[in-house]
Write a structure and sequence with these properties.
Elements (H helix, E strand, L loop, with lengths): L5 E2 L11 E8 L2 E6 L5 E3 L5 H8 L10 H20 L4 E5 L5 H8 L3 E5 L5 H6 L3 E3 L13 E7 L8 H8 L3 E12 L4 H6 L13 E2 L2 H10 L2 E9 L4 H13 L3 H23 L5 E8 L1
Parallel strand pairs: 5-6, 5-8, 6-7, 8-9
Antiparallel strand pairs: 1-2, 2-3, 3-4, 4-10, 9-12, 11-12
Helix pairs in contact: 2-3, 8-9
Bound molecules: zinc ion.
Amino acid sequence: MSAPDRESPRACPACDAARARAAFCKRGFDHLRCARCGTLFVARVPTPDELAAIYLDPSYHEHAGETEVERRAAEAEARARRLRALGAQHVLEVGCGVGSFLDAAARIGLDVEGVDRAPSAARARARGHRVHDRWLDELRPVAARFDAIAAWEVLEHVASPLAMLEGFRPWLRPGGVLALSTPSFSGVYARALGPRFPMVCPPEHLELFTRRGLVTLLDRGGFELRRLRSFSNLGRARLANGFRRYALGESPLARAAASALAVIAEQPARLVDAVGLGISFEAYARMR
Ligand SMILES: [Zn+2]
């Protein structure tokens, strides 16, 4: 039996509903599920000092191996092309990190700037990108001059995603595009793994949106959804890794079984993405 709905210490960050039910506790953070849209969120938001300690740590953003770097480059290029197809030329990326999207966007001819206070952004600057060493809300928009804002894997990190969307508006020209990705709490992996879903990782992730929650949030922020897809990036290597980690273990037999299962699972994993039940959402919306 699931827990009863009750008054939540924090209104739903997606739809603002006041009632939620207890879901589980992970890493000392109680998680609640919105009674209206199903979005998962931490009951207590970390203090600004706790958050700064995470994002200003020099090791943040630095975990990618070589195949991961290649995968990210391909993903970034696909995203840059989708933005260009929506008419964007001048793009601001919030939370650009080491700059893989800035690279891809510049490569296909977009004008890009980044915003990121994380020390890893120095690597993007070293490759010639313009990256503001501030949080976005510390900068004053001089004019609504960007065709698009990109915020890949950003929304789930902030205490008020609505305030963040509202903060984007003065930077965009009328009809400008917001492009974002964020983990999904509507997917099959989230449902199957619950608290063991790797995207449940407080205090970095403070909320995981359901489809309904994300659509509601964008609407409240004054953005009209144009395209929403789900993706998981589960190739064979990642699937095998997942089977070992979450189901089978690390014995030689388990490793062999995990590899065999991964071959079988690769096509179903693509199908899961195609029907919108993958690990994350990628959304494109136009400012009203
Ligand atoms: Zn909600």
